[in-house]
Design a protein that fits this description.
The structure is a single chain. The chain has 198 residues and is mainly alpha-helical. The protein starts with a helix and ends in a 5-residue tail after the last helix. The longest helix is centred in the middle third of the chain and has 22 residues. Helix 2 packs parallel to helix 4 and helix 6 packs antiparallel against helix 7. The chain is built from 7 helices and no strands.
Length: 198
């Protein structure tokens, strides 16, 4: 994630409320290679699509977790839990994805773990998705810099993202599943960030 994307996330963090929350225990670590070892299984090739898929899902999980500031949640996701749990999941899953000796079984189990963790964060945090979309739309409308230079983001690109956020809000109002929409929003942000002007 580039510096601009991190600044975007800090906009929400800056309006976070200090709320007393219960401390939840961390799940057991899964970084030990023996946890996923499969007998006599050969390592996955370096260009195995499963590696790229895992890294992508890690990115979705990371930005989704970072969006869950106290002011943007209905539920309880203690900061200590959010930070330590999130950082460990990202570190461990990334190590699996980048380890040349990781097997297909290890990659799949790490992928399952990241997917479970995203659902777990969403269930515990119960993010106020409409609020997040409104705040992020406001940021992109009012503050996000436009540029037609290579590496920047044109007015057309920014407006397209704003339109997508408005469309997602409409789907929430229509009663669609909020987890699906929340995840799609994370994917839209990742796509936008990775497709600047050329």
């Amino acid at each position: 994630m580039n510096i601009r994307a991190k600044k975007t996330l800090s906009i929400l963090a800056s309006v976070a409320l200090t709320v007393p929350l219960l401390i939840a225990p961390l799940p057991s670590a899964f970084s030990d290679s023996t946890a996923f070892a499969a007998v006599n299984e050969a390592p996955a090739p370096p260009d195995d699509p499963a590696r790229e898929k895992l890294l992508y899902e890690i990115s979705v999980f990371q930005i989704a977790a970072e969006m869950m500031t106290p002011s943007a949640m209905h539920g309880n996701l203690p900061d200590l839990f959010e930070q330590k749990y999130k950082n460990r999941i990202v570190a461990e899953a990334t190590a699996i994805a980048q380890n040349p000796n990781s097997t297909p079984t290890q990659l799949q189990k790490a992928l399952n773990y990241v997917d479970y963790s995203l659902h777990d964060f969403f269930e515990k945090g119960n993010p106020y998705t409409s609020y997040i979309l409104i705040k992020m739309s406001s940021y992109y409308i009012m503050h996000f810099p436009r540029s037609d230079e290579p590496g920047g983001y044109s007015e057309e690109k920014v407006q397209a993202l704003i339109d997508k956020m408005n469309h997602l809000r409409g789907r929430i109002d229509a009663g669609e599943d909020e987890f699906t929409i929340y995840r799609e929003f994370m994917e839209e942000l990742i796509y936008f960030d990775s497709h600047p002007n050329v």
